[in-house]
Specification:
There is one protein chain. With about 270 residues, this protein is α/β, with parallel strands linked by helices. The chain has one domain: Rossmann fold, CATH 3.40.50.720. The chain has ten helices and seven strands. Strands 3-2-1-4-5-6-7 form a seven-stranded parallel β-sheet, sandwiched between helices. The chain is globular.
């Protein structure tokens, strides 16, 4: 059920890969709530063709390819978005993460540091580059909202999460730092959402994922949060109802993050 939470708002969704992805479901929810969208992903992801289906479902939203590590690509993306919207816009979802060491089976204690630099650039510093581009181009309207997806491995050890834990830690730091400056400059708020383990294409590639999602379900008083519920939460963060929330890491995990042990798990 839609409530027009985002009526007259405009925004960019980064990282919608396929129907399983949180970014995909967030785009659909934002459109349902009245928002106008521009969709973007890396050129290699666009070649899969899936995002065009999403664009159709979101009122034929424009799709613009962009390598998030490339400032020229980001400038082109923002310029085209501003042309489409007729000016600045109101929200950004950063749903981007990639680990070369995980993909290639390198243990954390034996990581390839060149791959690690690429992981940090794509998964964390890309948020800085996105915000820097918006800042330089004055692309975000006053009281705009930026949300990046993170994970609790930034605070606690989940061995198979590997170098992505470091990347998420850096992502959260960028959120706080840039959130401070952007809040002062233009009342723009920047937050991360730490979601339950979710059966996305990317998440399912982590070793032992099926066992862990079952563990998290038993640990969480409310159970694991679904991708659909995460999309609703993000839409709320894009709305005017959360204007004074910024620089926060917000757990959306059914209570997992603050549960020491559960009766279900013990039994």
């Amino acid at each position: 059920m839609a409530n027009d939470l985002l009526k007259r708002k405009k925004g960019i969704i980064f990282g919608a890969l396929d129907e399983k992805s949180i970014a995909w479901k967030t785009a659909l929810k934002c459109y349902e709530e009245g928002a106008q969208l521009v969709l973007t992903n890396a050129p290699v992801a666009l070649r899969m063709g899936e995002i065009n289906k999403l664009a159709e479902q979101c009122g034929n939203a424009p799709v613009v390819g962009a390598d998030v590590t490339n400032m020229d690509d980001l400038k082109n993306l923002f310029q085209k978005a501003m042309e489409h919207f007729g000016g600045g816009f109101d929200f950004i979802l950063h749903s981007i993460g990639m680990s070369l060491n995980v993909r290639k089976g390198k243990h954390y204690t034996e990581m390839n540091y060149e791959w690690n630099q690429k992981t940090l650039d794509i998964s964390a510093m890309s948020l800085h580059k996105v915000l820097r581009t918006a800042w330089d181009m004055d692309a975000l309207n006053e009281w705009a909202s930026v949300v990046a997806l993170t994970y609790i491995a930034a605070q606690r050890v989940f061995p198979d999460y590997n170098e992505m834990a470091d990347a998420k830690d850096l992502l959260e730091s960028v959120t706080r730092m840039f959130g401070y400056y952007y809040g002062q400059k233009k009342k723009v708020r920047v937050n991360t959402v730490s979601q339950s383990p979710t059966r996305t294409t990317a998440g399912s590639g982590v070793k032992g994922f099926d066992s862990f999602i079952d563990y998290a379900e038993k640990m969480s008083p409310l159970g694991n949060a679904s991708a659909e519920d995460c999309a609703k939460y993000i839409a709320l963060l894009f709305s005017d109802y959360t204007r004074m929330v910024t620089m926060q890491n917000l757990f959306h995990d059914g209570g997992f993050s603050f549960t020491g042990v559960s009766e279900k798990l013990m039994s």
